[in-house]
Amino acid sequence: MQLPNYVKTALHIIKAAKYKAYIVGGAVRDYLLGLTPSDFDIATNAKPQEIIKLFSSYFLITQGIKHGTITVFIDHQPIEITTFRIEEDYIDFRRPGKVEFVDDLYLDLSRRDFTINALAYDEKVIDYFNGENDLKNKIVRCVGDPNLRFQEDALRILRALRFACQLNFSISEETKKALIKNKELLRNISYERINIEFNKMLLSDISRVINPYFDVFKVFIPELHINQIKENTNIIKKLPENIILRLSGFLYHIKNPDIILQRLKYPKKIQKNVLTILKYCDYKISSDNFEISKLLLDISLEDLKRIVTFKNACGDYLQIDYENVKVYTLKDLKIKGSDLISIGIPKNEQISLILRELLILVIENKIINDRSVLLNYVIENKKNTIK
Q1: Domains and CATH numbers, the chain
Q2: Chain segment 111-167, per-residue pLDDT in tens
Q3: Cα–Cα distance measured from residue 326 to residue 28, given in angstroms and rounded to the nearest whole number
Q4: Which end of the chain has less Cβ packing within 10 Å, N or C?
Q5: The pairing of beta strand 95-101 with beta strand 85-91
Q6: Parts of the chain with a pLDDT under 50
């Protein structure tokens, strides 16, 4: 395994002090898959206070010290260094109530979620749980008793599905049975954490898991309907890896998408963007520049681009010449609300409606965008425009 210099430095410092040190987890998995690891974790028999002493000349984050983790910054790169540990007495199906530091790598790896993540590396791969074999056979399998693993940390249910999506793996039969059996434990997991795993599935191949594990998704999105989801996964496959578009594809024709987005704690901007797509995705959009300019009075150009991308994934195949589309706002009009008030228009919501009507007429080239012309139009027609 080719290790970055900052990782080599960390390993050297620990080993020079006569402690054991191993690369563990995702970096080893990715290395065996032929991927480039994005981050590195080190497991060691050095206790947290000893790690702090060894790296006292570096910037440290000790927030995870209770669970044996010290984050060290070397060459501005973070690396988590964690003491070998075992965990007991899990609280609320998520957090261990008791952590005990040990001197045994096997015990440390035995507490991990899946065999493909229970791997270590120190000049060679160390594999106590046949993780390499599961990688070769493209299988996600729990370490030890899968029921116990999911009861310790229910988020592992979604992590199993996520790895199946991202790696194009299957889930072993015993892990699958335990996953479905324990699905209700997801009610103990915060929606913020569910959101993270769900997004990763959406941005990979969620079609691998949504149908066989539909009842798992129903735990946190009870509004789902199996027939609609089958159609939606076909749309998602045709969409680029963009969370706004993929979310829109997932929620297409699903009831109460606004409630779902709020429940899953999406930022308000993402909620707004998704709901805009869902509002206009069945709207017949003309390629006529005048019609598009009128539509852009209600949505942004970026909204329009996302809507067109979404509609194309649904089979509409629209082509819009964005470079020649003129985006108008009320500021482009040669009159303002104060001008309307000066000719006797009441100061109420009718002002904005009249200005909008005038702007549409300008866009359609039915009236000249000139202050006197616009005012005369209002004077001549105000009985019809004011309700």
Answers
A1: 5-224 (3.30.460.10), 225-321 (no CATH), 328-387 (no CATH)
A2: 999 999 999 999 999 999 999 999 999 999 999 999 999 999 999 999 999 999 999
A3: 52
A4: C
A5: antiparallel
A6: 385-387
Question: 237 with 207: CB under 8 angstroms?
Answer: yes
What pLDDT score does 286 carry?
Answer: 81
Task: Give the residue from 101, 210, 193, 105 showing the smallest Cα distance to 153.
Answer: 193
292 near 318, Cβ under 8 Å?
A: no
User: Residues 163, 197: contact at Cβ < 8 Å?
Assistant: no
Token pair for 45 = 């028999």
Beta carbons of 202 and 167 less than 8 angstroms apart? no
Helices 301-313 and 243-251: crossing angle, nearest 10°? 50
Question: What pLDDT was estimated at residue 93?
Answer: 67
128 burial level (CB within 10 Å; 0-12, 13-18, 19+)? middle
Q: Give pLDDT, residue 379.
A: 87
Helical ranges in the chain per DSSP H:
5-16, 26-32, 48-54, 105-110, 131-136, 146-152, 155-167, 173-181, 191-202, 207-210, 214-220, 226-237, 243-251, 257-263, 268-280, 289-295, 301-313, 337-342, 350-363, 371-385
CA angle, residues 247, 249, 250, in degrees to nearest 5:
65
Residue with tokens 């329009």: 304
At residue 35, the pLDDT reads 92
Burial 346-372 (b: 16+ CB within 10 A, else e): eeeeebeebbeebbbebbeeebebeee
Cα of first residue to Cα of last residue in the chain, in angstroms, is 75
Task: Give the pLDDT confidence score for residue 83 in this predicted structure.
Answer: 96
Map residue 344 onto helix, strand or coil: coil
> What are the residue ranges of helices labelled H in 57-138?
105-110, 131-136
